[in-house]
Amino acid sequence: MTLEPPTHSAFLFAVSVAQAYSALIETADREIGLGGKLFDAGELDDAGRALVVAANIAGAATLVASADRLAQKQALRDGVADFLVNSLDEALRILKNQLRKRETVSVCVGLSPALVEGEMSGRGVQADLLRHDLSIAPHHEALIFREGEETEPGLRMIPALVTWRVDSGRPQELAQLDAIAIGCLDQDDWQARRWLRLSPRYLGRPAHGLRLLAAHSEFAARFWEQLREQVDRNQVAFAFESCSWFRGAPDQFRFDPGAH
Q1: 15, part of any domain
Q2: Is residue 79 packed enough to be buried (19+ CB in 10 Å), middle (13-18) or exposed (0-12)?
Q3: Does any domain span residue 17?
Q4: Whose CB among 4, 115, 193, 235 lies 3.0–4.6 Å from 230's, allowing a Cys bridge?
Q5: Does 157 lie in the same domain as 88?
Q6: In what order do the strands lie in the sheet with 129-130?
């Protein structure tokens, strides 16, 4: 049985989450991430959804707002928000408890963002991180390599986006590729390790079966080299596909034992 590839919208959502995560995790603690930090994600629009998921992965306690009932329900179904409440008071009770324990939570208030912001300002509630301090660059801009900025030996400096998936959708096969990817990371790259450990849980249904990592071209080259070696040794004997984007161009590595 062949696993259906992720839709274009699911892919773009995962990319947006990865880029938001990269911005958030810069200020995080190695052990607890953003545990104990309150993030105000503003409105639950498309960008807001990506920011909430990124904050979940980074470990923050997140507040988001929307008066759109369909958007609220969708956020709960997709696991973007953990709780849907009707007032800022309810949201703060949940958030304060999780902040005290330095645990992750996301709370959506079923009111307009402007109303929630006004109440927060009037009560002196201040977030540690604010949505307007973050920007998510379009993935095609973030991954473009500009001539003259870096030479070929500096592969570590060239942004790369790497994805992988298995045809069967079997968790154990995907976990095998995950382990190869983790082995290709720099020893001190705890941010990427946290992403690979937690992003499958929080990306949820929209990106089911897809692994995605915003890294550098050195990682991409190392990952594909390890994939080829394990295929040659028959240590990987299942169908999979990996794609990478750097210098603004895509490349693909696909292995299908049934095609030989």
Answers
A1: no
A2: middle
A3: no
A4: 235
A5: no
A6: 83-85, 105-109, 61-65, 38-43, 129-130
pLDDT of residue 226 exceeding 50, the answer is yes
83, 105 contact by CB (below 8 A): yes
Find residue 243's DSSP bridge partners.
163, 252
Write down the residue that tokens 């800022």 correspond to. Answer: 88
Span 59-106, pLDDT tens digits: 999 999 999 999 999 999 999 999 999 999 999 999 999 999 999 999
Work out whether strand 105-109 and strand 129-130 pair parallel, antiparallel, or are unpaired.
unpaired
Neighbours of 212 (CB within 10 A): 23
Domain enclosing residue 107, as ranges = 32-136
- Name beta bridge partners: 163: 212, 243
Rounded to whole angstroms, how far apart are CA atoms 9 and 21? 18
Shared-domain flag, residues 151 and 102: no
Q: Looking at residue 52, what is its pLDDT? A: 97
Query: Which of 121, 136, 151 is the last residue before a domain boundary?
Result: 136
Question: Which residue, among 225, 218, 230, has the nearest Cα to 185 in the 3D structure?
Answer: 218
H/E segment holding residue 108: strand 105-109
Structure tokens at 173: 């096969």
Q: What does residue 59 show for φ and ψ, rounded to 5 degrees?
A: 100, 10
Q: Which residue has the tokens 């028959």?
A: 234
On the CB side of 68, CA atoms within 13 Å amount to 12
